[in-house]
## 1
Amino acid sequence: MNKTDAVPARHPDGVPVRVAEDIIAAGAFVSAKGWTPATAGNLSARVDGGAMAITASGVDKGSLRSPDVLLFDLAAGKVLGGLAASAETALHVERYTADAAVGAVVHVHARNATVLSMVDASHEIRLEGYELLKALDGIRTHETGVAVPVFANTQDMDALARDVRARLADAGPRFGYLLAGHGLYAWGRTMADALRHTEALEFLLGCELERRKVMR
Ligand SMILES: [Zn+2]
C-alpha cells in the first residue's frame, strides 16, 4: 500500500471525499454564473448506502469547504451530525426517493427562471423548438417539447415535496421544475448532468422570456 492508498476515502463526518469535491466544484460553478446570490441555492449528490450529501444552510456556494457538505440519511430523514441542512432539504430528499436514477440535485435562484416563474405562474412552461433542448438527457432533436412544471412557492417544504412527488409521478421525462418567484430545481444522473440541465433550462427559460416580450 502506498501513501495515496492510505488517504481516507471519507471525511470524518462520513461524506465521501469525491462527493464533497464534486459539490464544492459545482458550488463554484453556479456561484460564478450568478445563480446563487446572497447564499441562496443548494446542492446535493446521492451517496451509496441510502444517503445524500447536501450543502449546509446559509453558506456561500462560491466558497464551500468540506465541513459545509453534510451527510443526510434518506431513510431516517436527518443529518448525521454537524450543521443544519438547507431549509429545502425535503425537496432534495423527494427527488432521490422518487427516482433511483437521480444522482444529483441542483437548486438555484437564477434570474430567468425566477422572473419567468412570476410571468407565467400557471401549471407549467413548455419549451419547444429550441436547439438547446438537446442538452437534456435523451433528447436528440429540436423538434420536441419539454414541460417545466411551476409550483406555488411556500415555506412549508414538506407539503411542497408531497405536491412535487404527486405531480411528477406520472409525468413524462422531467429535468427540472420552478418554484414561483423563487427559482429552479434541476437534477440528473450525475452532478455534471444536473449542472448541464440547470444551465440549459436557465438559458431556455431566458429565451422563452425574451420571446414572449417580442412576440406579444
Ligand atoms: Zn431556494
Note: The first helix runs from residue 17 to 32.
## 2
Amino acid sequence: MTFRGDYAQGQGGNVNTSSGGGRGGGGLGSGAMMLLPLLLRGGGGGTIILVLLALLYFSGAFDGLLGGGNDSQQQSQDEYSLEHCQEQGSSNEYDDCRAAATMGSLNSIWAEVLPAQADVQFTEPEMTLFKNNVNTGCGFASSDTGPFYCPRDKTAYLDVSFFNQLSQLGGSNGPLAQEYVTAHEFGHHIQNLEGTLGLSDYKNPGEDSAAVAIELQADCYAGIWAHKASQGENAALEPISDEQLHQVMQTAQSIGDDSIQRHSGGEVDPDSWTHGSSEQRMQAFKSGYESGKMSACDTLNRGVYKS
Ligand SMILES: [Zn+2]
C-alpha cells in the first residue's frame, strides 16, 4: 500500500479511457509528431526488435497483445470503466486507479514546484488509460509502444498491462515502481511546459545526446514527485520504504538502454542510446528523490532553476 487519505480512493487527475479503437477522428498519420515512450526497444535496429518480440512471445509476455488468449478479446470488447476507482482503497488495489491517483498527486505537486523552482506556469496534462491500441495526437499506437507522452495533445498514454511486460524485462511491478512510470511521463509534460521537450531527437542518439538528457531529466522529475509526495501532513504517499525504493531501482534498471540491448541479445552500443543506461536512469531518479529540486535534474545544463 502506498496511497493514503483521499488519494487511496482513486483521486485522479484528468483521466479518461479508451478501449481498442481509440478516439477516431482525423489528422493522424502524415502529421504524426514525435511521441516520448518510456523505453525504446531496439534503438532502430529492426533485427533487435524482432529478436525481442520473439523473446517476449516465447516467454508468454505477448499473449494479450497477439490475441492468444480469450481474455484479451473479451477485454477489447468491454467498456472500459473506471467506476471501481471510486471505492475506498482502490488506488492501492487496482493498477489503473493507482495511475489515476498518481496523476492527481502529480498535479498538486507540480502546480507548486514548477512556478516556484523554474518560474514557469503550470497547466495540467491529461492521461488516457487504454487497452490494446489508441489513436493519439501523435498518431496511432499499440500497447507494444509502452507508456508514452504525446506533446501535441499534452496527454500521457498508459496501458496498465505494460506492467506485466515490465517484469519480463526484469523490472518490478510494485506500486511505487508503477508510479515512477506515470511520473516519468508526467515529467515530459513538465518539459513541454518548459519548452525543452523539442530538443529530444531519437534520430540523433548516443549517451551524450539531448534525447538521453531529456529522458534522464524525466526520471529525475519522477524522483522529485516521490520526494514531495511522501512528505508533510497532506502527503499523498505513505513514507517510502527501502523495499519500495528498491523496486523503483529495479524498474529503472530494467528499462536502461544497455539492459534492453542485452535482453534483446544485441551488442551494448552506447552510440544508439536514447534513454540512458541502467545506471544513469537509477542515478537520475535518485538525484530528484534525494533533493526534491529541479536544479538537481538539470541534465540540459540550463542553469535556470532556483536552488
Ligand atoms: Zn521518456
Note: The longest strand covers residues 14-19.
